[in-house]
Design goal:
heterodimer; A: mainly beta; seven-stranded mixed β-sheet; about 55% strand; globular; B: mainly beta; five-stranded mixed β-sheet; four-stranded antiparallel β-sheet
Chain lengths: ~120, ~110
């Protein structure tokens, strides 16, 4: 069966420090991968999605970047964190090529607090 | 993707059916209705989805109106563990889709 791992679960970082959040998927090949952010009291916002290695689409201009160095690995990064980067970050995957019938499968998220 | 409208919050007694409505009056013919839920501090969990016909799985039932402009998620016997935010979203299929979640409905199941 497929599983998704996301770490760390919680993170406290000072303003101006770098960030690296990692997500890996097991049990499937060539998945679509996604990074979402959920600010307190708000819905989920799609940040990045990827349909293959090295292929990243950004949904909103921001202080963050994403990379996909391997088929089942998705990394969210920042060179210098801002206070506004605080939030709940979620990684998700879905099977590629099965669009209409494929729900998203989410990790358990990383709660980032920038101080 | 079509926009959806959901009530901000709902209450349900434990053991009773929970009926969560969703309006999606601008849905187009190739858009599916999906339901997810999110328990506090966890990632969202997929529940069910459908296009035109009513659907049922081990978690819930999805009733879609004939004109497809609204739908209802039914949890037949709500438990305390069903307390969560429920998201209704519609989207077009295809391999490069993406989702935008709104604020959803906070369902509180009371003992």
């Amino acid at each position: 069966s497929q599983t998704i791992h996301q770490w760390p679960a919680t993170l406290v970082q000072p303003v101006g420090s770098p960030l690296s959040l990692e997500c890996t998927v097991e049990g499937t090949s060539n998945p679509n991968l996604y990074w979402y952010r959920q600010a307190a009291g708000r819905g989920l916002q799609l940040l990045f999605y990827s349909v293959g290695i090295g292929q990243i689409s950004s949904e909103v201009p921001q202080n963050l970047s994403a990379s996909r160095p391997q088929d089942r690995q998705f990394i969210l990064s920042s060179k210098k964190l801002l206070l506004s980067d605080s939030g709940f970050y979620l990684c998700a995957w879905s099977p590629i090529g099965q669009g209409v019938g494929s729900p998203l499968h989410f990790g358990n998220g990383t709660r980032l607090t920038v101080t | 993707d079509a926009k959806t409208t959901q009530p901000t919050s709902m209450d349900c007694a434990e053991g009773r059916a929970a009926n969560l409505p969703c309006n999606h009056s601008t849905i187009s013919g190739n858009e599916y209705v999906y339901w997810y839920r999110q328990i506090h501090s966890q990632g969202p969990q997929y529940i069910i989805h459908g296009l035109k016909n009513n659907e049922t799985n081990e978690m819930a039932s999805l009733i879609i109106t004939e004109d497809r402009k609204s739908s209802t998620l039914i949890l037949p016997h709500a438990t305390l563990r069903d307390t969560a935010v429920y998201y209704c979203i519609v989207r077009v299929g295809g391999s490069n889709y993406k989702l935008t979640f709104g604020k959803g409905t906070l369902l509180t199941v009371n003992p």
